[in-house]
C-alpha cells in the first residue's frame, strides 16, 4: 500500500504539472459544459467548477481499472513508472459519451440556475483544479506548493474577487483549508446554492437526500439544499438512522483511490439503506454522485440537486 500511495502521488503531481488536473485527461473536458450558455470568459466573479463534476466519468473509469488490478499489485509498478502510467491512462480512460454529457449537463444546469436568479458571473476556460485530492490524501506539503503556485497565483493574475463554488470539496478547500495555511486569500467565496433564491416547481415530488459529509457536518450547509428542495415542492424523506446528521453514512469516496473494492462496498450499502426511503436519491456532490451512481445497479435513480431544481429530472 505504501508503494501504491507513493505511485499515486507521483501520478497526481505529474498530471497536475502537465494539465493542472489530478488525473491525466485533456483540459478541454473542463469547459465543454459552457457550450450554448451565454457566459463571458472574463470577469472578477467566476463560476469555479474545479473540473470536479467533469472528471466524474474518468474517475469511475479509473476506479474500475484499479478494482481489476488492485493497488497492492500495481503499487511497485506505478511507483517506478508513473510517467508511463500517465501515457497509458490517457489512452485507456475513455468513458461513455453519455456519462460525459450527463455531468456536463449538471454543470450547465447550475449555471442556468444562477443566470435565472440574476447572478452575473464569468467562467475561465483554463481554470485549475483546486488540489483537494492532494490534501484529502494527506499530501499537505504538495497541496500547499500546488495551491500557492497555481491556484492562488491564477486567481490573483486574473483579478478574481469572488469565486462561486459548485461542490463541497472545492468549497472546503477555499473556505477552510487554504486560509488555515495562507491566511486571508483576498477573495470572497460563496457556494452556488446560497445564491439560488427562487426555483420552479420540480418534476419530482418525493426524494431521499444523501448528505455530503463536508456540506452536512463541516460546512454548515445541511439545511441549504433541503430548503431549496422544499421551495421546489419536493418532499425529502428523513429517517434518524439513515439521514441523521451524526448517523448517515459516507458514500465511500474518501477511499476510492486507495481501496476501490471497499469504496464500492460502502457505496452499495449506502444505496441499499437510502432506497428503503425512496428510489430517487438526491446528492449535491460530484464524488457522492460518482460513487453512488457507480453502485446503484439501476435499482434507484441518483440525481444531482441541480438536475432536480432545474427540472431536468
What can you tell me about this protein's structure?
This protein is globular. The protein folds into 2 domains: 2-194, no CATH class; 199-309, Rossmann fold (3-Layer(aba) Sandwich), CATH 3.40.50. It starts with a helix and ends with a helix. The strands form 2 sheets. A 4-stranded parallel β-sheet has the order 5-4-6-7. A 3-stranded parallel β-sheet has the order 1-2-3, with helices on one face. The chain has 313 residues and is an alpha/beta fold. Helix 1 (2-19) crosses helix 3 (71-80), helix 2 (52-68) runs antiparallel to helix 5 (97-116) and helix 2 packs parallel to helix 12. The chain has helices spanning 2-19, 52-68, 71-80, 82-92, 97-116, 132-136, 140-157, 168-182, 213-218, 222-231, 260-275, 286-294, 305-309, and strands at 45-48, 162-165, 188-191, 206-209, 235-237, 280-283, 301-304. It is 51% helix and 9% strand. The model has no long low-confidence stretch (mean pLDDT 90).
Amino acid at each position: 500500500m505504501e508503494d501504491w500511495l507513493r505511485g499515486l502521488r507521483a501520478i497526481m503531481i505529474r498530471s497536475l504539472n502537465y494539465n493542472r488536473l489530478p488525473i491525466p485527461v485533456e483540459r478541454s473536458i473542463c469547459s465543454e459544459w459552457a457550450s450554448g450558455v451565454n457566459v463571458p470568459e472574463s470577469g472578477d466573479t467566476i463560476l469555479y467548477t474545479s473540473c470536479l463534476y467533469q472528471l466524474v466519468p474518468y474517475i469511475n473509469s479509473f476506479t474500475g481499472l484499479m478494482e481489476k488490478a488492485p493497488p497492492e499489485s500495481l503499487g511497485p509498478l506505478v511507483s517506478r513508472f508513473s510517467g508511463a502510467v500517465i501515457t497509458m491512462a490517457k489512452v485507456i480512460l475513455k468513458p461513455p459519451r453519455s456519462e460525459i454529457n450527463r455531468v456536463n449537463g449538471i454543470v450547465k444546469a447550475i449555471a442556468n440556475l444562477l443566470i435565472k436568479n440574476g447572478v452575473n458571473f464569468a467562467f475561465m476556460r483554463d481554470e485549475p483544479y483546486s488540489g483537494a485530492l492532494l490534501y484529502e490524501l494527506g499530501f499537505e506539503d504538495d497541496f500547499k506548493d500546488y495551491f500557492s503556485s497555481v491556484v492562488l497565483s491564477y486567481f490573483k493574475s486574473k483579478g478574481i474577487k469572488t469565486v462561486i463554488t459548485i461542490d463541497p470539496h472545492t468549497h472546503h478547500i477555499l473556505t477552510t483549508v487554504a486560509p488555515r495555511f495562507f491566511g486571508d486569500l483576498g477573495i470572497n467565496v460563496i457556494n452556488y446554492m446560497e445564491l439560488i433564491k427562487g426555483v420552479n416547481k420540480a418534476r419530482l415530488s418525493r426524494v431521499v437526500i444523501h448528505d455530503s459529509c463536508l456540506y452536512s457536518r463541516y460546512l454548515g450547509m445541511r439545511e441549504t439544499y433541503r430548503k431549496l428542495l422544499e421551495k421546489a415542492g419536493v418532499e425529502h424523506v428523513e429517517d434518524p438512522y439513515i439521514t441523521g446528521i451524526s448517523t448517515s453514512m459516507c458514500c465511500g469516496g474518501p477511499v476510492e483511490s486507495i481501496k476501490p473494492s471497499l469504496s464500492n462496498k460502502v457505496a452499495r450499502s449506502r444505496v441499499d439503506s437510502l432506497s428503503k426511503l425512496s428510489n430517487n436519491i438526491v446528492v449535491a456532490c460530484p464524488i457522492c454522485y460518482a460513487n453512488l451512481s457507480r453502485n446503484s445497479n439501476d435499482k434507484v435513480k441518483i440525481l444531482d440537486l441541480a438536475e432536480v431544481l432545474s427540472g431536468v429530472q
